[in-house]
Amino acid sequence: MSARRRIGAAIVLALAWVLGLAGCASPAQPPPVGAGPSGEITVFAAASLKGPFTEIAEGFEAKHPGTAIGLSFAGSSDLVTQISAGAPADVFASADPSNMDKLSAAGLVDGAPTTFATNTLAIAVPPDNPASIATFSDLATPGVKVVICAPQVPCGAATKSVEDAARTTLTPVSEESSVTDVLGKVTSGEADAGLVYVTDVLAAGDKVKGIKFPESKTAVNAYPIAGVATSANKDLANSFISAVTGPEGRKVLADAGFGKP
After folding, report:
1. What number is the average pLDDT over the span 149-153?
2. Distance (Å, rounded) from C-alpha 71 to C-alpha 57?
3. Angstrom distance (rounded) from CA 134 to CA 126
């Protein structure tokens, strides 16, 4: 065999060997179909949702490794202002429909909001109830230091509805931007009473005494949740919303004192 033919045969054998190895190699595997959510999102939620949403987020992260749920809590109106100004939010949960409507009107809501819970007001007083509060009308007694939410905050709007229903006008010593701030005034001893949600009284434990009143039924707050249109991870945002509105999320909310939607 000539030298040229020997070289040609060697090349053919080498190519066959390489192709054989390639044929034995495992082909690249595509990502599994139906792989779980991944990445990070930031959830903007009403201050009254802090306890249950923290629990839901922790459970979601444990169930879906590789995800991270950031949480930011404040009064719903403040959150709308922040999102409208470009704050990087992926999900918004409001303590009332009106603030969600403001975001929808600005074109910043992705899809239709879902109502996932309800809440009502209660009176929170220090454990020893120094002003002897027993009814809603007692809050209007001269000298009683009562704290409420500002009118633009959902708990403030609910307070106004209750005032109208009870035909009682309150003279608060302070109007706060979130329900947790109202509760803080009571637990610190700066107020004799504060109007907060039933869920806040439950979460506070023995730090306050809760007083229910019949007029609260005239102002039931519905809580809607929706994705934010500017979200960079809508798949994860929608997965978290499903966790909130699904059976596990609703159980956490019910345990925290929230009513059914």
Report:
1. 95
2. 8
3. 13
Q: Tell me which residue of 126, 121, 261 sits closest to 195, measured CA to CA.
A: 121
The pLDDT, as a whole number, for residue 235 is: 97
Strand order in the sheet with 121-125: 174-176, 146-149, 193-197, 121-125, 209-211
Residue 17 pLDDT class (50, 70, 90 cuts): very low
Show Cβ contacts of residue 249 under 8 Å, excluding neighbours closer than 6 positions: 52, 56, 116, 243
Which of 131-142 are b and which e, b meaning 16 or more Cβ less than 10 Å from the residue's Cβ?
bebeebebbeee
- Which band of pLDDT confidence, cut at 50, 70 and 90, is reported for residue 56? very high
Q: Give the pLDDT confidence score for residue 30 in this predicted structure.
A: 41
Place of tokens 């020893």: 128
Task: Name 163's Cβ contacts closer than 8 Å, sequence gap at least 6.
Answer: 169, 170
